[in-house]
Write a structure and sequence with these properties.
Blueprint: E1 4-8, H1 20-25, H2 27-40, H3 44-50, H4 53-57, H5 59-77, E2 86-89, H6 93-100, H7 106-126, E3 129-135, H8 138-145, E4 151-156, E5 161-167, H9 168-180, E6 184-187, H10 200-209, E7 221-223, H11 236-244, H12 250-259, E8 264-268, H13 273-281, E9 286-290, H14 293-305
Helix pairs in contact: 2-5, 2-7, 3-5, 5-6, 5-7, 6-7, 7-10, 8-9, 10-11
Length: about 325
């Protein structure tokens, strides 16, 4: 029987209209949005349906709407699909992954993501930075970053795709040098240097804000961006603070997932960026995504065809 992991993507996947067909057709998805709107005091459905690309790109907005969309897709799907054998997220996606794995309640999940979005939005105002995706040899990218103060290689997505992050001027100079040496570069639509030590103040504030949240160990095997492997028992406020200032070891994570016998990945939430990266890391992985009513129905059909169905989840 095929074993699969649920994946959750990160910031940048948002788009106008995201999630609408899910909350309109699936009560479980609608309840996710209602919960988030009550907790955050933010019109998640209105912003998701009517917000402009510019509005949706703001950290304070995009993180809650991506989190809501991811949880809505997952909870609508698990009424029709088996539970996954493992969960993993890319950057922001780790929060949805841990919530879906039972590490916190849905209500507390929205409190956590609201706190993260707030401190990172403030960081973008007080310590602006840049992030650039670099497609080329990862070792060369790392070596060039070392030449520049406050620039780091932070997202190791595949063997040939790395994201660099840091102070804006220095990061763009590093990107320019990479381009001169044949590395293809693309600036990302974010306002700060995520996953670097420039986010330390935000990380410290997040840790304080999360001290009142009740966390528990995940009930589904969880693979971590920090270690690239299974998550050991963690102090979650400490873990999330470290996560904010540390690299994302996604390629290593996918290697660990497949080594443990996972043969398929289903991404829940907007687009299929994390699933596509997973496929680039291991061409033998089957990938699906659930982001709207149509892709949910397609995933149900695809899983049934591979021997996984709701009725067979305990077999």
């Amino acid at each position: 029987m095929q074993r699969f992991a649920a994946l959750f993507g990160g910031q940048g996947a948002q788009y106008p209209g995201m999630g609408r067909s899910l909350w309109e057709e699936y009560p479980a998805a609608k309840r996710v949005y209602e919960c988030g709107e009550d907790i955050l005091g933010l019109g998640l459905r209105k912003i998701s349906a009517e917000g402009s690309e510019r509005e949706l790109s703001r950290t304070a907005v995009c993180q809650p709407v991506i989190f809501a969309h991811s949880l809505a897709a997952f909870l609508a799907a698990v009424e029709l699909l088996p539970l996954p054998d493992a969960v993993a997220g890319h950057s922001l996606g780790e929060y949805a992954a841990l919530c879906c794995a039972g590490s916190c309640s849905l209500e507390d999940g929205f409190r956590v993501i609201g706190a993260r979005a707030a401190v990172m939005e403030a960081a973008a105002r007080t310590a602006p930075g840049a992030m650039v995706a670099a497609t080329g040899d990862a070792e060369r990218v790392v070596e060039i970053c070392k030449k520049y103060k406050n620039v780091w290689a932070v997202n190791f997505n595949t063997k040939t795709q790395t994201v660099i992050s840091g102070e804006e001027e220095a990061c763009l100079k590093a990107a320019g040098e990479l381009a001169q040496k044949g590395v293809r570069t693309t600036r990302l639509s974010v306002g700060s240097a995520f996953h670097t030590l420039l986010m330390q103040r935000a990380a410290d504030e997040l840790k304080e804000r999360l001290k009142g949240i009740k966390f528990q160990s995940p009930k589904i095997t969880f693979y971590s961006n920090l270690t690239g492997g299974r998550l050991s028992p963690a102090d979650f406020p400490d873990y999330f603070a470290s996560h904010m200032v540390s690299p994302v070891c996604f390629a290593q994570e996918i290697a660990a997932i497949t080594a443990d016998g996972i043969t398929a990945c289903v991404e829940f939430g907007p687009k299929r960026t994390a699933a596509t990266l997973a496929k680039k890391n291991n061409r033998e992985l089957e990938i699906l995504n659930v982001e709207d009513a149509d892709t949910l129905r397609a995933a149900v059909g695809g899983m049934a065809g591979s021997g996984r169905s709701r009725s067979g989840m305990n077999s």
